[in-house]
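Project outcomes to date are best conveyed with an example. Our students and postdoctoral researchers have been running inverse folding experiments weekly, and each run begins with a structure described purely in tokens. The record below, which covers 365 residues, was selected by the lab manager from last quarter's runs and is presented without edits.
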């Protein structure tokens, strides 16, 4: 077991770190496919078999459609294949985490917290010694855009915070956990990410629902809700909601006008098309900022295979009552909530953590 942990960390730790830097993203995604396949081979050598998680066959069908569509229909096959590599590596890591459930469950959540601290350090270093105006949309510590009104450090720390809250409510006297909670709250605020607050709220609501903690920790839960709502309103007052989500309407119209899809990764084609501009909503976006919409506008009708898969795995995670995998079910729900309102699913680290938590969330078939 110790050998498996060492090998896993040697390959997977830099894999997650590189995936959040926002540099050479296409190469990192290719590296992700290579590393995930290598880890899968190592798992097979160790265990002599590979267990297939529930709904993986459906996901495989989606990948086949994704690949064919990228090669035959996409307006830019190269872009679509780049995104395909991310979904392929995510699916492989899903199998890996599902098969290494016993080995990974005790410390995978701690890896997420460690990642949060590493990228928090990079965030503070860049703001003090670097260039606080630097932009990289697929980075976990730099500004998302030149407007400097969003930084994905908050999206990552929404996930870290649900883990912290999980342990905090089990031991409210842990000073270190309280310090992490304070740090995370600050990072969420300075990130200006409303999607991060929505994700955190979604994860915590699911957590307290499953634990029956609403009554037991009523005061703490109420305080959390008040703070979350207050911060959301403060940040929301600085930028509009409807008019910064024009691409949702563009995406819906784009699907209606292009039921065959334009290729995943080519949302900009939809956003530029004047046929998808109504009520003067013509603001350009290169991505849909919503995972299901990204896939459906990209693959058209074929994209509903992914939507159906997503509904089934979400239903399975939501209805699971097992205590041993609760923290990972909370992580999975939190990340999906973030992916529903932001394009963080195109940050490799976030996407790989999502599939990793899915594998650890699912019970054996």
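After processing, the design step wrote out the following sequence:
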């Amino acid at each position: 077991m110790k050998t498996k942990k060492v090998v896993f960390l040697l390959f997977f730790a830099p894999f997650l770190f590189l995936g959040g830097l926002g540099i050479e993203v296409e190469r990192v995604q290719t590296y992700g496919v290579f590393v995930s396949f290598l880890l899968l081979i190592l798992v097979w050598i160790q265990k002599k078999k590979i267990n297939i998680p529930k709904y993986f066959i459906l996901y495989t069908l989606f990948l086949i459609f994704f690949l064919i569509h990228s090669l035959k229909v996409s307006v830019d096959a190269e872009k679509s294949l780049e995104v395909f590599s991310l979904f392929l590596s995510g699916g492989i890591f899903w199998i890996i985490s599902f098969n290494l459930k016993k080995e990974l469950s005790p410390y995978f959540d701690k890896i997420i917290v460690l990642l949060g601290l590493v990228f928090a350090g990079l965030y503070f270093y860049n703001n003090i010694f670097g260039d606080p105006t630097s932009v990289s949309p697929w980075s976990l510590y730099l500004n998302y855009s030149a407007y400097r009104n969003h930084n994905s450090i908050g999206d990552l720390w929404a996930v870290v915070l649900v883990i912290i809250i999980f342990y905090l409510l089990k031991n409210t006297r842990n000073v270190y956990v309280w310090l992490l909670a304070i740090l995370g709250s600050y990072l969420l605020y300075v990130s200006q990410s409303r999607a991060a607050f929505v994700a955190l709220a979604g994860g915590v609501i699911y957590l307290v629902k499953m634990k029956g903690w609403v009554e037991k920790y009523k005061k703490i839960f109420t305080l959390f809700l008040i703070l979350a709502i207050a911060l959301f309103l403060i940040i929301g007052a600085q930028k509009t909601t409807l008019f910064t989500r024009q691409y949702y309407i563009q995406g819906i119209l784009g699907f209606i006008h292009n039921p065959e899809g334009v290729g995943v990764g080519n949302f900009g084609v939809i956003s530029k098309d004047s046929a998808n501009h109504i009520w003067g909503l013509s603001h350009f976006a290169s991505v849909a900022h919503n995972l299901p919409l990204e896939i459906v506008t990209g693959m058209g009708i074929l994209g509903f295979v992914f939507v159906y898969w997503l509904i089934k795995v979400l239903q399975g995670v939501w209805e699971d009552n097992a205590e041993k995998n609760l923290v990972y079910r909370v992580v999975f729900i939190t990340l999906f909530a973030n992916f529903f309102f932001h394009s963080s699913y195109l940050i490799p680290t976030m996407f790989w953590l999502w599939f990793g938590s899915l594998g650890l969330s699912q019970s054996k078939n």
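The two ends are 23 Å apart (CA to CA). The chain is about 70% helix and 0% strand. The training component of this project remains on track.
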